[in-house]
Amino acid sequence: MKKVLFFILVVTSASGCKKKSDNVSHKHTNALIKETSPYLLQHAHNPVNWEAWSPDVLNKAKKEDKLLLISIGYAACHWCHVMEKECFEDEEVAQVMNENFINIKIDREERPDVDQIYMDAIQMISGQGGWPLNIVALPDGRPFWGATYVPKDNWIKSLEQLAELYKNDKQRVTEYATDLANGLQAINLVENNMDHELYSLEQLDSAVQNWTQYFDTFLGGHKRAPKFMMPNNWDFLLHYATTTNKPEIMEFVDTTLTRMAYGGVYDHVGGGFSRYAVDVKWHVPHFEKMLYDNGQLTSLYAKAYAVTKNDLYKDVVAETIAFVKEELLDKSGGFYSSLDADSLGEHGNLEEGTYYVWTKEQLINLLGNDFELFQAYFNINSYGHWEGQNYVLIRDKSDEEIANSFGIDIETLRKTIKKSLATLKNERNKRPRPRLDDKILTSWNGLMLKGLVDAYRYLENNAYLDLALKNAEFIERELIKNDGSLYRNHKNGKSTINAFLDDYTTVIDAYFSLYEVTFDEKWLKLSKNLLDYTKKHFFDDASGMFFYTSDQDQSLIRRTIDVDDNVISSSNSMMAINLYKFDKLFPSEGYGETSNQMLKNVQKDFDRRAQGFSNWLHLVLFQNQNFYEIAILGENYKSMGLDLAKVYVPNSILVASEKDGNLELLKNRTVPGKTLTYVCIEGACKLPVTSAERALEQL
């Protein structure tokens, strides 16, 4: 690939930026003032002539033959705030940008389709990526230069050189951009693999064994820092350990979930998880709190509670839902996206984590006689020290160990700690709060809805179902269009962006799961309608996979096919699992064939990196073990259904009705005066039984 001068700069220090008042008059206002994204609105008064991403803006760049400067970030991004303060609020910088570029600001959470492409580009250019993600591209959008955070002087120098290069040697720049665009196409290819059998259980055992070399068996998670929560990793390993009888894997999952819940990455005062820990012991978080993490972790801890009956996991579920309800729930029933890592410090500057940390003196003054117990419980010592005089609360001992060391009973310990945390929360509420990103994203709401359904399913708390139904109805009312498609975003009654594949896959899964605990066919029907829309408008015949973008949307450099499971599972792995489950209810639709082919297309990578395909691996277990279709018919179908639902049986689906229904599994099976459960495999059913206990014996 031909070489073009580029600069990638590494951040070594940060500077704070002052909070703008909503009541001041602004010297500058740009086109972002028309947007709803809080991240874009944060930049609406920069002197830079920012535009939002749109076909009209790209056409303008082509018409004027002007380079695109594309800057991508998100509202909770600390270094995005730093670069805005140092560069985008600076008039000298703005002059260079406005004279030489069409400047586009993108919220990566609203436009992941654009972010995926340019993140791949910067990784090809430099071998690294991150946010803010700054790209310079030809007027048609093909990139040729990229950087993350750049200080002011280097930023100006870089942009001037790039503008000069395009002016004096356009052919060289165009050739490099062409090569890079071809590379972006090539790394996204997925072959339709017609030759191989499906991955076997023996192969899966070997892949997991390879994976275990990265396990941190003492502190949980993987042997590295930073440590991300990676809920799909532990969700699969929970499934694998329980259905293949691997106690050593279950012990590792238990260690990981316990250590995460003990860690500073979990907000002991207010509930909910931060995005990741910067260290190996889950202590100091990157303090932003994202809906997608908390939705997935709610689901994971609820399942883990169903398996272990560990009260710690039950408490984590309850406290996480309480956090989401208190901080992220809109009155409409939708959930907001995130809380910022930064909040105002004592000097009036935005500082990371200042809302969440404590000094020893503060704790002594607030807790009085309870401080000594609290100090031992949450390590207000060298283990819990962060920086300066600040401590991040972290546990490393069980309640039993602490209670024994103080010679008190468990109940007294827990009452004292609960009282102390309530005192801290009351005090913390007086502090300047982190900024809220109050846009509502469909896929993240789908993940949170699934978490609420699983919490209700396994913890049997009706309040969780009430919250789930409110959210499900919001999605139906505000995000599903008349033609059966979805919107990606919603804020203040306004939705503007067509949904992407992950929006569909998460809502399909959540609605299907909601049907399994309510047996209201409305949710199953909505789920199937979305599934069929996706097959029609996202499926790629050539690869047998699903594009990330619909055929109704503007074509970019490529139509991405994402297959790697990251912090959020890939949209194709979620889709393949949805298709597999729907095939059990609608076997004539061909869903199963599509799901099988998708699995074949990616399974070559499982040996090498199982943790990067952990959501796909559920399908390997489904294919190689019995998968149960459980059908309940009769007057007491709801109560019996919930008795079965609360038991963790990941290799199953559950349908129920008072009388014969439209689903094949519910036809011609009603016996007057009886409530019967049928346990079936591929539609072939065992003799019906009259209790949940006997049905579980058949499993």
TrEMBL record:
SUPFAM superfamilies: Six-hairpin glycosidases, Thioredoxin-like. InterPro entries: 6-hairpin_glycosidase_sf, Glyco_hydro_76, Ssp411, Ssp411-like_TRX, Thioredoxin-like_sf. Residues 29-184 form the Spermatogenesis-associated protein 20-like TRX domain. It holds the Pfam family Glyco_hydro_76. This is Thioredoxin domain-containing protein. CDD domains: SSP411. Coiled coil: none annotated.
